[in-house]
Amino acid sequence: xxxxxxxxxxxxxxxxxxxxxxxxxxxxxxxxxxxxxxxxxxxxxxxxxxxxxxxxxxxxxxxxxxxxxxxxxxxxxxxxxxxxxxxxxxxxxxxxxxxxxxxxxxxxxxxxxxxxxxxxxxxxxxxxxxxxxxxxxxxxxxxxxx
Amino acid sequence: xxxxxxxxxxxxxxxxxxxxxxxxxxxxxxxxxxxxxxxxxxxxxxxxxxxxxxxxxxxxxxxxxxxxxxxxxxxxxxxxxxxxxxxxxxxxxxxxxxxxxxxxxxxxxxxxxxxxxxxxxxxxxxxxxxxxxxxxxxxxxxxxxx
Lengths: 146, 146
Hints:
Two copies of one chain form a homodimer.
Chain A: E1 15-18, E2 21-24, E3 27-33, E4 44-49, E5 57-62, E6 67-73, E7 76-81, E8 86-91, E9 96-100, E10 105-109, E11 116-121, E12 130-131, H1 134-145
Antiparallel strand pairs in A: 1-9, 2-3, 4-11, 5-10, 5-12, 6-9, 6-11, 7-8, 7-10
């Protein structure tokens, strides 16, 4: 499996993780052990499905929460942006995850009809952790770099 | 959503959990917060996919590990057995999970081609936690009831 992108080309705090597939004649299994395959303890899991053609999701950054996303069925494209780098990645393999660092703006586009995206997060849901306005995100990033 | 089965009909330690779908015009999302929607802290997540027609999986019980399984795409049937009850459940909804208690023999059958099963576990992988021989399982269960 060729790397999706060198992690150096990804926004700060983002990495591609190649996952081990335990496959045999019965099918395939990918295990994600918190603190081992996943670079944090898993506080929350969620999955996105039933996405409609032409619909995009995300459009936010997290102040603190770190996540790992893997498209377990189908495909989508993700835009990741940290204020310096703005990178598109295609997620279309159940054996390849992307870690999304804190303070990374992300958008998901071009969902296939059958797309199921699994996301693991290092913290519970907290609306105050979300930055949903892009101008605010840019201002906070630039303030941090000043 | 009608209950899959009254939990009273399920083996000891097993329950059906109806999950809240956060759906809108963008699609659907189900969140599983460790210790809240999931009746334990999440140590490990794994997913099974690429199952072939006619293939069955599982055929074990865990001495201690408790798990929650949800079929996020497609369908399969699961056999659950605690020595007293032997119950089949159909898993075919992304908004309905089953908690599999410790010391419950389980088998998965009749996977659809597109089946993706997500499982969350309360502990890391440990081969010594598995009972893979049915006669041993029955002996341990009967010993426990004696």
